């Protein structure tokens, strides 16, 4: 099952066979246009020793590199290939002659039914193949499947296999749909009742994601699952939580600010000798960075100074903090600026590589406009929050560390910056995961585990039980 939990891995034949075994158990999928079909698994050494089915669906593999589906139609003496490179040997015996009138399979015509490229990555061919097997009617696909659908299907597949009535390892839990207050099912995915039999963190996380991705009730998606009113109100709807798992969407501002709040109010940090002050995206919001300067009003310095106050239930003064962690966002691209008060240094942590067209003498010059903007506003705010402040941040040394992980996915920058803030020890970052699915899933789980969540009662008990078991 491990291959199902990593978005950059191809599916193993065991995982493919498990799903094929599940769809074999659905009677309606064994009857397609032209009659009954047989859904072969990947072990096809005796693939043509079947005498009762005029059609055979064959999973094919090219040198452990690529999966595709071939459909043999004995009634029409026709071999339908859903991809190129189909070559079959013609040594077939013991086939029922009434339905297999022509045993010379090598002479059957090859008809390509799908000629346009549908797969856009390098690892999901197995998922495409089993979807073809499920949705091929005999002449066309019964459903319009996209790469996004396939990516989400990877999330669902572990839960489908685990939840299958054919799964003998599951036990005998009673399954039921989660119902909302109007008696409507909020999801087409079933969740096991407590107590849970699994304690595998990855398995539980994927069951959780499967449940959330399966919810399509508009009214239910508007419910607030997470809420906090200190130091200012933030509410996260189920739709926003669902969007976290959407690989085509960047970090949401409210979700980001909520997690910063969770980091900043962590009791463990209060015990540390070197205090850090964590800021959220309120700085960008108040200063209105990115707007035309001619249309941008002068920021309220009192509001900026308020951002330098200690977080609720945390007792410290910004003048006592060794470092200030300031996240910056523009058009969905997130960067972290760490202001080190002791060394008068600015660490610039950007997960996106500096573009090749940049010709500056020092990498920090790529960020000079942002630094100038941050320095002007932070200097004014610091003078108000700390009367002893007499420095100019713009004149500080600027560092662009080479050990910051780099990726090319703009939409993941917010998830990485949150990890930078959480894992920063004042000197450098540890090794940080850059896998998109893992980053998004971990972020969602951390939000749902928020101990001071004021809307916890809106989260179904089944989900709360799963969260309690995730370590």
TrEMBL record:
Sequence intervals crossing the membrane: none
Protein name: Ubiquitin-like protease family profile domain-containing protein
Record domain Ubiquitin-like protease family profile: where: 1-136
Keywords assigned: Hydrolase, Protease, Thiol protease
Source species, domain of life: Eukaryota
Biological processes per GO annotation: proteolysis
One term of GO molecular function: cysteine-type peptidase activity
PANTHER family, per database record: SENTRIN/SUMO-SPECIFIC PROTEASE, UBIQUITIN-LIKE PROTEASE FAMILY PROFILE DOMAIN-CONTAINING PROTEIN
Record InterPro entries: Papain-like_cys_pep_sf (IPR038765), Peptidase_C48_C (IPR003653)
Alphabetical list of Gene3D superfamilies matching this protein: Adenoviral Proteinase, Chain A (3.40.395.10)
Species name: Zea mays
Protein family according to the UniProt entry: Belongs to the peptidase C48 family.
């Amino acid at each position: 099952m491990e291959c199902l939990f990593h978005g950059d891995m191809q599916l193993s034949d065991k995982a493919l066979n498990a799903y094929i075994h599940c769809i074999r158990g659905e009677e309606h999928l064994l009857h397609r246009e032209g009659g009954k079909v047989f859904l072969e698994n990947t072990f096809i050494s005796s693939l043509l020793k079947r005498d009762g089915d005029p059609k055979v669906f064959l999973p094919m593999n090219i040198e452990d590199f690529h999966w595709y589906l071939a459909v043999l139609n004995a009634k029409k003496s026709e071999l339908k290939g859903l991809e190129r490179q189909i070559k079959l040997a013609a040594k077939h015996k013991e086939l029922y002659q009434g339905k297999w009138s022509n045993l010379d399979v090598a002479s059957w015509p090859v008809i390509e039914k799908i000629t346009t490229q549908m797969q856009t990555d390098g690892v999901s061919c197995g998922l495409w193949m089993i979807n073809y097997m499920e949705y091929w009617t005999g002449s066309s696909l019964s459903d319009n499947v996209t790469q996004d659908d396939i990516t989400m299907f990877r999330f669902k597949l572990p839960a489908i296999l685990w939840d299958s009535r054919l799964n003998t390892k599951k036990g005998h839990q009673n399954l039921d749909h989660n119902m909302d207050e109007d008696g409507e099912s909020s999801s087409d995915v079933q969740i096991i009742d407590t107590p849970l039999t699994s304690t595998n963190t990855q398995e539980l996380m994927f069951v959780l994601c499967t449940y959330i991705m399966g919810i399509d009730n508009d009214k239910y998606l508007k419910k607030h699952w997470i809420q906090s009113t200190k130091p200012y109100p933030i509410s996260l709807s189920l739709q926003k939580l669902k969007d976290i798992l959407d690989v085509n969407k960047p970090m949401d501002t409210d979700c980001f600010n909520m997690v910063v709040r969770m980091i900043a109010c962590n009791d463990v940090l209060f015990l540390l000798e070197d205090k850090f002050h964590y800021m959220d995206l309120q700085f960008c919001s108040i200063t209105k960075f990115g707007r035309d300067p001619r249309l941008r009003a002068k920021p309220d310095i009192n509001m900026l100074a308020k951002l330098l106050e200690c977080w609720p239930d945390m007792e410290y003064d910004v003048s006592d903090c060794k470092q200030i962690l300031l996240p910056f966002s523009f058009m969905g691209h997130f960067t972290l600026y760490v202001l080190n008060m002791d060394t008068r240094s600015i660490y610039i942590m950007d997960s996106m590589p500096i573009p090749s067209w940049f010709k500056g003498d020092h990498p920090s010059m790529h960020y000079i406009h942002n630094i100038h903007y941050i320095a002007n506003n932070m200097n004014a705010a610091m003078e108000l929050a700390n009367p002893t402040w007499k420095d100019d941040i713009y004149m500080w040394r600027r560092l662009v560390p080479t050990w910051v992980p780099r990726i090319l996915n703009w939409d993941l920058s917010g998830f990485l910056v949150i990890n930078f803030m959480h894992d920063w020890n004042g000197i450098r970052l540890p090794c940080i995961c850059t896998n998109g699915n893992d980053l998004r899933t971990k972020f969602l789980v951390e939000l749902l585990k928020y101990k001071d969540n004021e809307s916890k009662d809106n989260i179904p008990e089944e989900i709360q039980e799963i969260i309690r078991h995730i370590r």
